[in-house]
Amino acid sequence: MVNIGNSWDELLKDEWLKPYYKELRKFLAEEYRSGPVYPDMHDIFNALRYAAYEDVRAVILGQDPYHGEGQAHGLCFSVKKGVAPPPSLVNIFKEIQSDLGIEPPPHGELTGWAKNGVLLLNTVLTVRAGKANSHKGMGWEELTNRVIELLNERETPLVFLLWGRDAKEKARLITNPRHLRLSAAHPSPLSAAGFFGCRHFSKANGFLEETGQETIDWSVK
């Protein structure tokens, strides 16, 4: 059984018993044995661990983890301190600077965002080293879709930041009119021209303020 350590445990308890997750566990056990696989198995659920269900105010959806050594640690787009921020994250910081005037930080670890109510959720939570999308279609999507559905059920308004085609496809799960969906191109250098100028960070805070909630500090400490 998975132990996340907060309200997600009760909300997701039935998922761990379903056939898809049992098959996923078998697959992962073999993958980690033959490895390397990222992130470290203890970091797989960090996005949920750092942002309990009732604390989430914004959701950023990624695809699958970074597949380079030492990069992924369970939060989409984030890398540990000491690891150079990848190009997509550099572009996110550029947009934050343009939008809010916050200088890019010296590192790319976004744990502070997660602890401040930003769910940094990849739709696939593991990857084989050097092989992007290698764990796609193995069951993670069913679990993370359930996470999105549960958040959609929340009465307290949330902001969903959907960047790129894969994230935008999840918009179909966000049907509650209380919530705000913000869509833009992916911040990858291949598509960042459609990401720059989206001003999602100020728009998210504007919505939170309008709905009587605390805004998010988008600086990276």
Explain what the structure shows.
The protein is of the alpha/beta class. The protein contains eight helices and six strands, in the order H-H-E-H-E-H-H-E-E-H-E-H-E-H. Helix 7 links the parallel strand 5 and strand 6 (180-184). The model has no long low-confidence stretch (mean pLDDT 96).
Compose a concise summary of this entry:
Helices cover 33% and strands 11% of the residues. It has 221 residues and is an alpha/beta fold.
Q: What string gives the helices and strands in order? A: HHEHEHHEEHEHEH
Number of helices: 8
Provide the gyration radius in Å.
17 Å
What percent of the residues sit in helical stretches (DSSP H or I)?
25-40%
What characterizes the major β-sheet? 4 strands, parallel
Read across the widest sheet, the strand sequence of neighbours is 3-2-5-6
Structural class: alpha/beta
Low-confidence stretches: none
Report the principal-axis shape: globular
Structure keywords:
221 residues, alpha/beta, four-stranded parallel sheet, two-stranded antiparallel ribbon, 8 helices, globular
What is this structure's SSE topology?
Layout: H1 8-12, H2 19-34, E1 37-38, H3 46-50, E2 58-62, H4 87-100, H5 111-115, E3 118-122, E4 127-128, H6 140-152, E5 159-163, H7 165-169, E6 180-184, H8 200-210
Parallel strand pairs: 2-3, 2-5, 5-6
Antiparallel strand pairs: 1-4
